[in-house]
Amino acid sequence: MFLVFDIGGTNMRVAVSSDKKEISNSKIIPTPKDFDKGIQAFKQIADQLGGEPIKGVSGGIAGPLDSEKTMLLASPHISNWVQKPLKDKLEKVFNCPVSLENDTALVGLGEALKGSGVGYPIVAYITVSTGVGGVRIVEGKIDENALGFEPGHQIIVPDGNPCNCGGKGHLEAYVGGSYIEKIYGQKAENLKDPKIWDEISKYLAIGLNNTIVHWSPDAIVLGGSVIKSLPLNKLEQHLSQTLTIFTKHPPIKPATLGHNAGFYGAFTFLPFS
Ligand SMILES: [Zn+2]
Known about the structure:
This protein is an alpha/beta fold and 273 residues long. Helices cover 34% and strands 20% of the residues. It is built from 9 helices and 10 strands. Strand 2 and strand 3 form a beta hairpin. Helix 1 (35-48) runs parallel beside helix 2 (86-94) and helix 6 crosses helix 8 (232-242). The chain binds zinc ion. Zinc ion (ZN) is lined by residues 153, 163, 165, 167, 170, 172.
């Protein structure tokens, strides 16, 4: 049996698979704030989901990782997990190889392999949820990178809105769910005013314009809760006006795999035997 996981700032999802292709059973719990309790939770959930010996573990965690991909380096939500030896601890608990990645990178990889990105060699996956993240996938693999991908922290307005990362004018600070709530006084899912959505779409189009000119993707896949409310036709209108250097923008496709996307990405990092 193989174990795959997705540790977010709010919830932690763990699933098991026997064939590394489909999930046979899964469980979701609130992410324990305490790292040691988090490790205990892994063991308990694995027992509940089958109890068979685990042959490989692979998953993602929200935030930047060290270059060896063994631990989380920063997180506003689960600060107690920062700088803790997550990979080593899981290897000891399950006595098998463990692979750790950024959670958004695995979701994007999953969408490229099994979801909306199928058939496109270069996929730019952008998630607009509480915050904004993304990843560049090339030929079914997370593209080489030195520090990870952080398209949410590209500057779209000089000296603009403050971002939680400490910067100003970042894309996330205009279209991220928590910022939308702060700016417009309502959660994205309750926002009905088309003028407001037009404004949000315009900011996102600027971000996508920049992503397209730098990443040159065959398709853009958009995931995250805010995308469910955002009018995609407005976004495409703004993008067509903004992106002038290319004759047309690559197809913009909503993500289709939902919460399981990261598991499909995680499967590719499991050992063969
Ligand atoms: Zn930022």
